[in-house]
Write a structure and sequence with these properties.
The structure holds two protein chains of two kinds. Chain A is mainly α. Chain A contains 17 helices and no strands. Helix content of chain A is about 75%, strand content about 0%. Chain A folds into three domains: about 35 residues; about 120 residues, no CATH class; about 210 residues, MetI-like fold (Orthogonal Bundle), CATH 1.10.3720.10. Chain A is globular, with a radius of gyration of 24 Å. By secondary structure, chain B is an alpha+beta fold. Among the domains of chain B are: about 30 residues; about 180 residues, MetI-like (MetI-like fold, Orthogonal Bundle), CATH 1.10.3720. Helix content of chain B is about 60%, strand content about 5%. Chain B has nine helices and eight strands. In chain B, the strands form three sheets. Chain B has a four-stranded antiparallel beta sheet. The longest helix of chain B has about 35 residues. Chain B is flat and about 75 Å long. Classes of the chains: A mainly alpha, B alpha+beta. Chains A and B meet through helix 2, helix 11, helix 12, helix 15 and helix 17 of A and helix 1, helix 3, helix 4, helix 8 and helix 9 of B.
């Protein structure tokens, strides 16, 4: 370490210069954040940033959804811990449980305190965190006794939860409908991103298979679609979605502005995902398909059970990379007038009371996005390790 | 799997028929979908009295463009406005490409530095930039950095460069091709070359963002060169810089150039976010044009076509570069 930093006079000078620059930058940032910045703009608008103009008397539905998601996350966490991969010397995830618990508890305590949230809302966040940890403990304790049949069915909980969540957010079945125009902030960002991620996946896999197909019509159709989408900036496609879908569908059938944008995101992401999956397909030796065929599997069977599982595992890092950039791309919805996080930031700063408080708002959003994207990246690396058939160790 | 092997196959499972059946079915569905959408389009457009036409391109635009290379005013027709926007896009993309390549190369090389702190810094830069949306970075540069610059005496002054809220003033060849720097006249900065803060914010944002991705491309390219090449060059007595320039980079370029192509195209497409920082690029002009004329289909076709052509030109140039750096077998 010492040789790496102070090995030669030139190296030492470089280290000292960098340390001085870093130190002054860190000091400047701290001084700004603690003394000059006026965080009231974030604190006073925390609800707006979280859910937009979602009606207050209906917000209990979002709390319920958050609690359900926390319980499901706790369940998944507990089961991952109680079912180590035996073929891997008992590889556990997360590798250090206590650090994860500590981090979660620290965030749950610090963020509501820093935002100066209402004591009642702070209490709800603590309750939800406690629920997550409780379910994690219960699943870790009793998870091994669950029969394999139940365990195999548990992943179905996530799509079910997604449908329940959309029902809770959107209303219907006796719940008061909340129109998409009232969704906003982080809620809208997450809805748009998750919707596009879920639906672009099957579409992207089909397009990738189409592009690798022997049938010329399928191949050229897929190539045309993928290259058309990848040749255009997302913002022009969103623009197209907002301004042309009204002409392309019979009157009255055109979806709401929010759903138009969500569909454009989906079709956009599918083209990029197709390229990631194609790279995975190329990496699988043709002998795999030939062997599966000679065992008597039909082409769809061979693809589903032999080729795709291997190809998707190879493509996983790239795919998660695409999902991360998709999450970031949702900010562009603000440019077509939707109120996701960036759009909310715009309206907040148009308020004369918070004029000129750009730095505080943008820095908060940057930290939020950075944490979400970095967490996705970490999760992807953990999943890669768990799925790797030939671990290095 | 389970079907008996005896007995004739149904005719539609025949190897000569099945592919055509599948393709026919897909083609039918796609054609029906396209016919449905186009039918609606024609019906809706004729109901609105706006069937496809490009005659409106000749009408006066009626809006101004704040900065252009080509002379433009509100009396000129729409097509001149779109061309001015396109030129603005190309200007930002060209400057951005050069800057991002330079930054990306420096950071990519820094990640091989013997100094651990510099290596860590290069990695942190990439991790920081890649996990924050570009749009957020652009508005940060514009509203937080460039619009917060002071004017007049207090402006940020470096040799040959002055950063002020009224713009970026650079030393350049002035009248009579004399090299001259920025000067303060009556509290207003003047220089032979002035860039607006909008342009500066856009280019800075694009360079810093794309530079992070290019540094990864450069790093990947250099990692792909076998270690033995470094060792062989060192044993021939070459210094590290000569080794890099004469031995490693020529081989790394084969890996780097295709990666650069992807990044260049994404920079060109990302330049459409200029609208968020008030720079009137092609997209921004097209948006105004659509709002004024209501010609959604025509404007969007022009936009998509223009970006497609830009992408193709970049790809063609990079393909040419790729052939240049290819290893020639003797």
């Amino acid at each position: 370490m010492r040789a790496e930093l102070f090995g030669s006079p030139g190296n030492s000078a470089l280290t000292l210069a960098l340390l001085a620059a870093l130190g002054s930058a860190a000091f400047g940032l701290l001084h700004w954040g603690l003394v000059q910045a006026r965080w009231a703009v974030v604190r006073a608008n925390s609800t707006l940033f979280a859910v937009g103009r979602y009606p207050q008397e209906q917000q209990w539905r979002l709390w319920l959804l958050t609690a359900l998601l926390a319980a499901a996350a706790g369940l998944a966490w507990g089961l991952l811990r109680s079912h180590p991969r035996r073929d891997r010397g008992g590889d556990l995830w997360p590798q250090n449980d206590w650090i994860a618990v500590g981090l979660l508890a620290a965030i749950a305590l610090a963020v509501p305190w820093w935002l100066r949230l209402d004591p009642l809302i702070q209490g709800r966040w603590w309750g939800i965190t406690a629920l997550l940890l409780l379910v994690r403990w219960a699943a870790g304790h009793w998870g091994r006794r669950l029969p394999a049949r139940v365990l195999a069915l548990l992943p179905l909980l996530w799509p079910l939860l997604y449908l329940v969540g959309m029902l809770l957010i959107n209303g219907g079945l006796g719940l008061l409908p909340v129109p998409p125009g009232d969704w906003g902030g982080l809620l809208l960002t997450l809805i748009a991103a998750s919707f596009a991620i879920l639906l672009c996946f099957p579409l992207g896999v089909l397009l990738a298979l189409g592009r690798r197909s022997d049938l010329p019509l399928l191949r050229w159709g897929s190539v045309l679609y993928i290259e058309f989408i990848r040749g255009a900036p997302l913002i022009t496609l969103l623009f197209l979605g907002q301004n042309m879908i009204g002409f392309l569908l019979p009157g009255g059938l055109a979806p709401d502005r929010v759903w138009r944008a969500a569909w454009v995101l989906t079709f956009f992401a599918a083209a990029y995902l197709a390229e990631a999956v194609r790279a995975g397909l190329v990496a699988i030796p043709p002998g795999q398909l030939e062997a599966a065929r000679s065992l008597g599997l039909t082409i769809p069977q061979a693809l589903r059970t032999v080729v795709l599982p291997q190809a998707l595992r190879v493509a996983l890092p790239t795919m998660v990379g695409q999902f991360i950039s998709l999450l970031q791309d949702t900010t562009m919805l603000s440019l077509v007038g939707l109120m996701e996080l960036m759009g909310t930031a715009r309206t907040v700063m148009a308020n004369p009371a918070f004029l000129g408080r750009n730095a505080e708002v943008y820095l908060t959003l940057a930290v939020l996005f950075w944490c979400c994207c970095a967490a996705l990246g970490l999760g992807s690396r953990a999943l890669e390790r768990r799925l790797d058939p030939n671990p290095a160790s | 799997m389970g079907e008996p092997l005896s007995g004739p196959l149904p005719w539609w499972r025949d190897r000569r028929v099945l592919p055509w059946l599948v393709q026919g079915a897909v083609a039918l569905v796609v054609l029906l979908l396209i016919a449905f959408l186009l039918g609606n389009l024609v019906r809706n457009l004729s109901a609105a009295g706006m069937l496809l036409s490009y005659r409106w391109l000749q009408q006066p635009a009626g809006f101004d463009i704040s900065e252009t290379l080509l002379p433009f005013d509100a009396g000129l027709p729409y097509w001149r406005a779109l061309v001015a926007g396109l030129v603005n896009t190309l200007r930002a993309v060209l400057v951005g490409l050069v800057g991002a390549t330079a930054l990306g190369t420096v950071v990519g090389l820094a990640s091989f530095s013997p100094n651990a702190l510099l290596r860590g810094l290069a990695r942190s830069y990439v991790e920081l930039i890649r996990n924050i949306p570009l749009l957020l970075q652009l508005v940060f540069w514009y509203f937080v950095v460039f619009l917060a610059l002071p004017n007049g005496e207090a402006a940020l002054q470096l040799p040959g460069v002055v950063l002020a809220k009224s713009g970026l003033f650079l030393a350049w060849f002035g009248e009579g091709l004399r090299w001259s720097g920025p000067t303060l006249v009556d509290g207003v900065w003047r220089a032979p070359l002035r860039l607006t803060v909008e342009f500066s914010a856009l280019v800075t944002g694009l360079v810093v963002y794309t530079g992070a991705f290019i540094s990864e491309v450069v790093r990947g390219g250099i990692t792909a060169v076998p270690k033995g090449q470094w060792e062989a060059a060192a044993s021939l007595g070459l210094g590290p810089l000569v080794t890099l320039r004469r031995v490693v980079l020529p081989q790394a370029l084969r890996v780097i150039v295709p990666g650069l192509n992807t990044q260049y195209i994404s920079l060109a497409k990302n330049s459409a976010l200029a609208v968020a920082v008030g720079y009137t690029d092609l997209y921004s002009v097209a948006e105004t044009t659509l709002n004024q004329t209501g010609r959604a289909v025509e404007v969007i076709l022009i936009l998509l076509g223009a970006y497609l052509v830009i992408d193709l030109v970049i790809s063609a140039l990079m393909g040419w570069l790729n052939r240049l750096v290819r290893i020639r077998e003797r």
